[in-house]
């Protein structure tokens, strides 16, 4: 699978363009996911066409930004995050690597799982 980053709910256009530039320099395909596609499996959005679901989402926008990296090695993830820090791009708290497990999840399901994980990690850091 070609390296792909799915971006959800990045509203600051300047920030979005800076992130796209970083990804293009890394030769990574970028897909800004429209809210109407939030019921599609994230694997489909990343290019696994046999997972297609033709439902259109008409609900609320995600409350936070989300980024899904598909086809990335650990080194590529580290490189991307380092480049984002160097460019002073604020953190995207909800990040995931596409896996066989989450490829069939909708964007909304993945978002909810990442939200739970983020809340748990925030609580754990607060206890330290």
UniProtKB/TrEMBL annotation:
InterPro entries: UCP014543. It comes from the Bacteria. This is DUF3783 domain-containing protein. The lineage of its organism: Bacteria, Bacillati, Bacillota, Clostridia, Eubacteriales.
């Amino acid at each position: 699978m070609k390296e792909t980053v799915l971006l959800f709910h990045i509203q600051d256009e300047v920030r979005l363009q800076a992130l796209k530039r970083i990804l293009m320099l890394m030769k990574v395909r970028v897909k800004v996911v429209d809210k109407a596609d939030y019921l599609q499996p994230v694997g489909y959005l990343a290019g696994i066409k046999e997972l297609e679901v033709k439902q259109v989402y008409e609900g609320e926008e995600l409350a936070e930004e989300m980024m899904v990296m598909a086809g990335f090695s650990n080194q590529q993830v580290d490189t991307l995050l380092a480049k984002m820090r160097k460019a002073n791009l604020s953190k995207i708290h909800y990040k995931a690597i596409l896996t066989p497990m989450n490829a069939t999840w909708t964007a909304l399901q993945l978002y909810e799982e990442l939200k739970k994980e983020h809340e748990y990690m925030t609580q754990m850091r607060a206890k330290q």
